[in-house]
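Quick log. Single chain, no ligands specified.
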Amino acid sequence: MSGSLNEAFLALLLLGALALWWHAAIQARERARDIARAFCHRQAWQLLDQTVALISMRPRRHEGRWGLCRRYRFDFSPDGGQRRSGELTLVGKRVERISADIGDGACLIE
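-> predicted structure:
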C-alpha cells in the first residue's frame, strides 16, 4: 500500500511541475508578443498575425542565476505589403535582444 501511495505522490508532483512549466511558457510567450508588438509600434510597423513563435529554448546562466533563454520569431510589415522577420531573445523575464530584417541585408537591433 505504501508503494502505491509513493507512486501516486510522485505522479502528482510530476503533474504539478508540468503544469507550472506550461504556465511559465504561456506567460513568456505573452510577454514576447507584447514586446514584439511594442517594438513594431515604435517603428510604425504592423505586427503580422499578432503572435510570436518559439524557435529555441535552453538553460543559461544570467547574473549568477540559472534561467531559460527563449528565442522567438515574429513577422511584421513595414509598409503593409512586404512580410519581414524579426527575432527577440528573453532571458528569464528580461529582454536581451530584439532585431528585425529591414531589407537589403540591413538589420535593426535594439
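The first strand starts at residue 46 and ends at 47.
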